[in-house]
Design a protein that fits this description.
The complex is a heterodimer of chains A (about 280) and B (about 375). Chain A has about 280 residues and is α/β, with parallel strands linked by helices. In chain A, about 35% of the residues lie in helices and about 25% in strands. Chain A contains ten helices and ten strands. Chain A has helices at about 65-70, 95-100, 115-125, 135-140, 140-160, 175-190, 205-225, 235-240, 260, 265-270, and strands spanning about 25-35, 40-50, 55, 80-85, 85-90, 100-105, 195-200, 225-230, 245-250, 250-255. In chain A, the strands form two sheets. In chain A, strands 6-7-8-3-9-10 form a six-stranded mixed β-sheet, sandwiched between helices. A four-stranded antiparallel β-sheet of chain A has the order 2-1-4-5, with helices on one face. In chain A, α3 (about 115-125) packs parallel to α6 and α5 packs across α6. The longest helix of chain A has 19 residues, at about 140-160. Chain A is globular, with a radius of gyration of 19 Å. Chain B has a domain at about 20-275: ABC transporter involved in vitamin B12 uptake, BtuC, CATH 1.10.3470. In chain B, about 70% of the residues lie in helices and about 5% in strands. Chain B has a two-stranded antiparallel ribbon with strand order 1-4. A two-stranded antiparallel sheet of chain B has the order 2-3. In chain B, β2 and β3 form a beta hairpin. In chain B, about 45% of the residues are buried. Classes of the chains: A alpha/beta (about 280), B mainly alpha (about 375). Chain A: This is Amino acid/amide ABC transporter ATP-binding protein 1, HAAT family. Chain A: InterPro entries: AAA+_ATPase, ABC_AA/LPS_Transport, ABC_transporter-like_ATP-bd, BCA_ABC_TP_C, P-loop_NTPase. Chain A: Keywords: ATP-binding, Nucleotide-binding, Transport. Chain A: One of its GO terms (molecular function) is ATP binding.
Chain lengths: ~280, ~375
């Protein structure tokens, strides 16, 4: 078990502070995606750099979720290429992307409703578990050791997200905000290099949003996880992201720091409907 | 009042992850095992053994098998009867296989019964994987219809190809007499019901324990993830194909052993028709009534479906009522059907859920909360 250092006191997180933004870790180039006659994405290129928080914004139907789906292999674009760590990524399945270190959360919560919060988070580590069928049936030696080692890691995530009290509760019974947190925990359990967050704060009240922002920034600081997030709350986006990509009708309007994007005339036109 | 977990602290994850984390549950479980292994064989008569307890245990294995596939992995199947038939015929072929003749030995030699059962399970698992292939493409009711193909094709195969019955003219296979240990006959007409019962009970305990253990390991979680939300499961790195086929394999392994046990330990001789579509439905009802996705539910459901008709038939007589036999058999159907509907309305998640609620209430009793 090679667990990364994870401070046991979550509230005292961010000991290391923000890590400097590194090289390009993922690059999408000239992506075009069509569903029949509908052009979801047209000729989109941008880079994701290591340790950064990149926000993708845009009006509804701009193709933001489709973009994430392309990145984690759920959709296969008709044109364009995706480079992951400098290598061109060929057609791959979502589970291959997960194994390559890309995790994600969903706009509509996609938890496993019949399982407890702990089991949901443990499922995030399934790809790292190797014990055989027979080991598992006997639950001796290897399988048990593995379970306990991964349980320890998951308990640290539970501690970090402050959801100790609900670890054994079936997630179907949890309120919305906590479900979102469990979903983040499940994605974190896989120790991803890149974390795709699809509207992590949708439908939350101000306090819940603040909590979620704190978790996102803490994860970014502490694990150096690269984040790509979609968000509609402009205040949140401007505050937490290092860079912003703006999409509109499947095209890229702008790409830059929050400040640059805010003063971009095209962006203002798209959002305010001016000329 | 006595069912309390207060004061039972868990100091390690191993202690927290055991099957029965509450001490009273553990005691109840070991008591139940002791009763089943020691007290029941002493008390129960041969009729009870041969016609009630043995079929109940056999059906428990089958419903465990289907619960793995449908209750845990979420793949609806109507092929249980076909897979049980495969188990029965595989066991027959394996047990009548003369290894001595195959390898040119002087004396005839046969596979040991334990290996016959295991082999029947493994062969059925392979067949199950084959018929599980459509599950990669289709889901839900459509998959159920696709598994019907397994049900009909397999029965047709065993009916039409005389090799499976060792060219018997009647198409019926009979369990050959075999010993578990020297002097202890477990199959064939000479086998004593108590021996069969104890062998079957050990099999059931091991299989149930194995299933329970898998459900708390990564394979079990992968199945439940596929069941609850297959897209999310795939996106966190679970390979759908492998996971679904593993569910088909293990489920069929259990169903195969159940079929072999049905033919060898319960009826003694069997024809393909004994594993008709009715059996598939029966097992499906068991897990729906007992509780989908619950090991306990598999047993409760099997008990409900196999024991209740016996109770309904014998109940009036035991109460001293003198009702004609034909009326009893009609009443049995009516009461049985009404009870199924009643339970499904009261608790759609099955008897296992009722049991769980009862336990939660008991923890607080006599206080309201």
């Amino acid at each position: 078990m090679s667990a990364p250092p994870l401070s046991s006191t979550a509230s005292a997180a961010a000991p290391s502070g923000k890590r400097p933004i590194g090289d390009v870790i993922l690059s999408v180039q000239n992506i075009s995606l069509r569903f029949g006659g509908v052009r979801a994405l047209t000729n989109i290129s941008f880079d994701v750099r290591q340790h950064e928080v990149l926000a993708i914004i845009g009006p509804n139907g701009a193709g933001k979720s489709s973009m994430l789906n392309v990145i984690n292999g759920f959709y296969h674009p008709q044109e364009g290429k995706v480079f992951h760590k400098g290598k061109e990524r060929l057609k791959m399945k979502p589970h291959d992307a997960a194994r390559a270190g890309i995790a994600r959360t969903f706009q509509n919560i996609a938890l496993f409703k019949g399982m407890s919060a702990l089991d949901n988070i443990m499922t995030g580590r399934n790809t790292m578990m190797k014990s055989s069928l027979l080991d598992q049936m006997l639950y001796w030696g290897r399988a048990q050791k593995e379970e306990i080692a991964h349980r320890e890691f998951c308990e640290r995530i539970i501690d970090f997200l402050e959801i100790e009290a609900i670890r054994k509760t079936p997630v179907g019974r949890l309120p919305y905000g906590l479900q979102k947190r469990v979903e983040l925990g499940r994605a974190l359990a896989a120790q991803p290099e890149i974390l795709l967050l699809d509207e992590p704060m949708a439908g939350m009240n101000v306090e819940e949003k603040e909590d979620m922002c704190r978790f996102i920034l803490d994860v970014n600081d502490e694990f150096g996880t690269t984040m790509v997030l979609i968000e509609h709350d402009m205040g949140v986006v401007m505050d937490i992201s290092d860079r912003v990509v703006v999409l509109d009708y499947g095209r890229k309007l702008a790409d830059g720091t929050p400040h640059e994007v805010r003063s971009n005339p095209d962006v203002i036109a798209a959002y305010l409907g001016g000329h | 009042m006595f069912y309390r977990e207060a004061g039972q602290f868990k100091a390690s994850y191993a202690a927290d992850q055991q099957i029965f984390p509450i001490r009273q549950d553990r005691i109840a479980y070991y008591t139940l095992l002791a009763v089943a292994f020691a007290a029941v064989p002493m008390v129960a008569n041969e009729y009870w053994m041969a016609t009630i307890l043995i079929p109940f245990l056999v059906m428990s294995i089958a419903s465990l098998g289907l619960n793995i596939l449908t209750g845990y992995a979420g793949q609806l199947s109507l092929g249980t009867g076909g897979f049980m038939a495969t188990g029965a015929f595989a066991a027959y072929k394996l047990s009548t296989w003369d290894i001595g003749a195959t390898f040119g030995l002087a004396e005839p030699m046969h596979l040991h019964m334990v290996f016959v059962f295991l082999g029947a399970g493994v062969i059925t698992a392979a067949v199950g994987v084959l018929f599980g292939m459509p599950s990669l493409r289709i889901k839900g009711f459509y998959l159920a219809v696709a598994t019907l193909a397994a049900q009909f094709f397999l029965l047709w195969l065993f009916n039409k190809v005389p090799w499976f019955t060792n060219y018997s003219t009647s198409g019926v296979i009979s369990a050959p007499p075999r010993e578990l240990f020297p002097g202890v006959v477990i199959t064939g007409p000479m086998a004593h019901p108590v021996t069969k019962y104890l062998f079957l009970l050990s099999l059931v305990v091991l299989l149930a324990l194995g299933a329970k253990n898998i459900m708390r390991c990564h394979l079990g979680r992968a199945w439940m993830a596929i069941r609850d939300m297959d897209i999310a499961a795939e996106i966190i790195g679970i390979r759908p194909m492998r996971t679904k086929l593993a569910a088909f394999a293990l489920s069929s392994f259990y169903c195969g052993i159940a079929g072999a046990a049905w033919a060898f330990l319960y009826t003694g001789s069997v024809e393909p028709l004994a594993f008709s579509i009715e059996v598939s439905f029966k097992v499906l009802f068991m897990i729906i009534i007992g509780g989908l996705g619950s090991i306990m539910g598999s047993f409760l459901g099997a008990a409900f479906i196999t024991l209740l008709p016996v109770l309904l038939t014998n109940g009036p007589r035991l109460l001293g009522l003198n009702i004609p036999v034909d009326i009893i058999s009609h009443l049995e159907f009516m009461i049985f059907g009404a009870l199924i509907i009643f339970f499904l309305i009261v608790e759609p998640h099955g008897l296992a859920r009722l049991w769980q609620i009862a336990k939660e209430k008991l923890r607080l009793w006599p206080f309201p909360y």
